């Protein structure tokens, strides 16, 4: 029994190593003092200061524009990719290539996209970041939707085609409703990934524009303040909520498929 309990020591130590810094960051975001390292009392003033910072608000607007656009692109293309690979392809090479944006280091993908934009003479701006984030997140959406496809009833699609429905009608009436929880979960994941992605945005954004992670990076070069802690806590809350919602939707879809 004692040996069994000792096995939990590295388990909880790993969790503490991963999440204790995040807990400290959130606690320090409610600090009433000016220091980011010394807690002087509870206060919400730094959250109010965020709303008055035009640079942060501009970065937030840019981030929401990029995340929304990238989510739409990634969701549509990722869903089409997942259905194509699961229903119309048996190529292991295509399976591997479809995961490349998720597997490649962000720096390699960012440099590749920058060179590609330069080759086609595309002027950098928010739209170039939207395209880049859409490509990056598409692989994750495809993986989530494809996992959902494994739990769908293919006999319904076969029956639809036997009754004379074409591929488009079958997809819209039969396949798509079954995939909806997975698609929504993939979209939430794509939004979360784009929300706090830094490297790809840094390399593919135009001059004079910045997303929120880039704004945070430029601010912490001069030191961490409680205002940055408050901003990070808000981003953490949004990301955590999106991930939990995606997991819940995936479980709901799986339970419906089993019933």
Written description of the protein model:
- The protein has helices at 2-6, 8-28, 45-52, 54-88, 92-98, 100-103, 106-119, 126-149, 154-162, 167-195, 199-204, 212-220, 226-258.
- Helix 4 packs across helix 12 (212-220), helix 8 (126-149) packs across helix 10 and helix 9 (154-162) packs antiparallel against helix 10 (167-195).
- By secondary structure, the protein is mainly alpha-helical.
- The protein has 13 helices and no strands.
**Bulk shape:** globular
Give helix % range: over 70%
- Taken as a percent bin, the fraction of beta residues is under 5%
State the end-to-end CA separation: 39 Å
* Series of H and E elements: HHHHHHHHHHHHH
Secondary structural class? mainly alpha
The main pleated sheet reads as: none
Summed up, the helix count is 13
- Name the assembly state: single chain
Round the Cα radius of gyration to an integer and report it.
Answer: 22 Å
Regions with little confidence, pLDDT below 50 for 5+ residues: none
Number of beta-strand segments: 0
- Kindly state the mean pLDDT as a whole number? 82
Short précis:
This protein has 259 residues and is mainly α.
Topology:
Elements: H1 2-6, H2 8-28, H3 45-52, H4 54-88, H5 92-98, H6 100-103, H7 106-119, H8 126-149, H9 154-162, H10 167-195, H11 199-204, H12 212-220, H13 226-258
